[in-house]
Amino acid sequence: MTEIKRASVLLAHGSSDPQWVTPFTQLLAHIREQLPQDGVRTELAFMELASPSLSDTIRRLAAGGCNHIDVLPLFFAAGRHLRRDVPAMLDDLQAALQQQGLAVTIHLHSPVGLEPEVARAISQVVVRQLS
Amino acid sequence: MTEIKRASVLLAHGSSDPQWVTPFTQLLAHIREQLPQDGVRTELAFMELASPSLSDTIRRLAAGGCNHIDVLPLFFAAGRHLRRDVPAMLDDLQAALQQQGLAVTIHLHSPVGLEPEVARAISQVVVRQLS
Q1: How far from the centroid of its chain's Cα atoms is residue B103's Cα?
Q2: Which chain B residues contact residue A131 at CB under 8 A?
Q3: Who contacts B102 (Cβ-Cβ below 8 Å, separation ≥6)?
Q4: Which of B91, B127, B84, B25 is nearest to A33 (CA)?
Q5: What is the pLDDT of residues A106-123, one digit of tens each?
Q6: DSSP secondary-structure letter at B113?
Q7: Sheet-wide strand order for A41-46
Q8: CA-based radius of gyration for chain B
């Protein structure tokens, strides 16, 4: 029986503007602090315009022995990228890794912005800014 | 003395995918419920690929008599769009409206995703999904 070794990737859109990345690296640091020290390895990757890319990150994790990878999109909503491009890319990548003898299960989650607590926090901020 | 008539615009990126818009219209409805009934008029607009555009929305609000407009970006971070394109567009628009006799003050806020409560909610969701 193969031992399950999990990892997770926070997926952000990416931007050609280097300053854009900063809040995401801060968020990653904050999340790592809250996760158990011996828990799931958590990385940050970008869909385009910034590095590391999602595919490079997953290849690296797979090469390091991870065989269950959760991808958590830091998006407000799912559009073409998350409903078509990313699933297609992950399917191809999973098949390519399989051919290299790396059997990896990849689970693409719903965008975090769709979760009720995030929507609630956004509402609170907007209502406060307008009051 | 001119009476101040405020309005606000929630600015989302926009997508060619019609389903992408749904969570934002839900968020707008939720925010409108929480704001006082006699308070600031609040609209939703998109930077690209979806309508209404930010400029059309501001023109419409200005034509309706609004002279103080808050623009609140529903973004996780500020990249090229929010730091260059949008401010330049708003400056041009403000000058064009002024020439038409519509003096409008437009205030572009920081992205809501940078606010601590939103970042905290995102961390909570991610930690829960990974636990």
Answers
A1: 19
A2: 35, 39
A3: B62, B63, B67
A4: B127
A5: 999 999 887 889 989 988
A6: G
A7: A41-46, A6-12, A68-73, A105-108
A8: 16
Which residues in chain B are contacts of A50 at CB distance < 8 A? Answer: none
**Is residue A41 within 8 Å of residue A104, measured between CB atoms?**
no
Nearest residue of B to residue A19, measured between CA atoms: B79
What pTM, to 2 d.p., does this model score? 0.85
Supply the ipTM of this predicted assembly. Answer: 0.83
Q: Which residues in chain A have their CB less than 8 angstroms from residue B35's CB?
A: 127, 130-131
Q: Element (H or E) spanning B24, and its range?
A: helix B18-34
Tell me which residue has tokens 């790592």.
A32
Amino acid at B77: A
Q: Which residue of A has its CA nearest to B79?
A: A20
In the numeric block, which tokens belong to residue A34? 């809250």
DSSP for B52-111, written as a single string: SBHHHHHHHHHHTT--EEEEEE--SS--HIIIIIHHHHHHHHHHHHHHTT---EEEEPPP
Q: What is the mean pLDDT of each run of 10 residues along chain A (131 residues)?
A: 86 87 89 80 91 96 95 88 92 96 94 87 87 74
Instruction: Determine if residue B58 is left, alpha or beta; phi over 0 gives left, psi from -120 to 50 gives alpha, anything else beta.
Output: alpha
